[in-house]
Amino acid sequence: MKSATVLHSGLAALSLDAALAEPLLRYLGELEKWNRAYNLTAVRDPAEMVTRHLLDSLVLIRGGETRFTLPQTRLLDVGAGAGLPGIVLAIARPQLQVTVLDSNGKKARFMRHAARTLGLDNVEVVEGRAEDLEAEAPFPAVVSRAFASLADFLRLTEGALAADGQWLAMKGKLSHSETKDIPGNVKILDIHRLAVPGLAEARQLVVATRAS
User: Fold this and answer.
1) I need a labelling partner for 80 at 20 to 30 A (CA). Which of 4, 100, 131, 142 fits?
2) pTM of the full structure
3) According to the model, what pLDDT value does residue 62 have?
4) What element of type H or E holds 2?
5) Residue 102 in contact with residue 79, Cβ under 8 Å?
6) Which domains does the chain have, with CATH numbers?
């Protein structure tokens, strides 16, 4: 099945604007080109990229049975890789200022290229490690997608999160031990099941905040 068909079907399933298909496919085209030279992702098939990358990121906006509201102002994506989910969210929500961070130079270069090519003025690319980030102001939300263990994600990004902010950890299978191993100053608010159109695999979103 062609990637455009898969994307249009997925956008409809998530109740998202069909007009998003054009910029998302442009982003996907750039990712495909760069991936041939720099191996940014192990997924090669364009239609599979739509499901496993684009729709898997967009599910944060419309998660099947879950209706989780992203912040309206600023978001930090840690370990963004090729811009997933950060750049995809920036395309879908132009009013959201997104900072994408990755320590891998080739991935950071691709994200800068993608932001320039797509005219994404709401994207800032930072090359570096999460624990070394020096932001002008803390973020109301910090998201990760397969970045690290839950405990490491929470610990490494604590300095980037606003006092009343929330961590958003996108996970596949989530073990009981992983949620029990979190720092003592963190409280898990909820664990949402995310339904990615066309993907018959477990996806969960752990929402956490600082314990009062």
Assistant:
1) 4
2) 0.94
3) 66
4) none
5) yes
6) 3-210 (3.40.50.150)
* Structure tokens given for 6: 């898969």
Q: Which helix or strand (DSSP H or E) is residue 35 part of?
A: helix 21-38
> Does 141 appear as a known binding residue?
no
Torsion of CA 203, 195, 31, 23, to 10 degrees: -150
CA separation, residue 178 to residues 24, 77, 137, 149, 161 (Å): 33, 21, 29, 7, 21
Output the CA torsion 151→155→157→163 (10° steps). Answer: 110
> Is residue 130 part of an annotated ligand binding site?
yes
What is the CA angle 207-209-212, rounded to 5? 145
**Does 70 count as an annotated binding residue?**
no
Mean per-residue pLDDT for 72-88? 95
Q: What is the pLDDT of residues 1-19, one digit of tens each?
A: 699 999 999 999 999 999 9
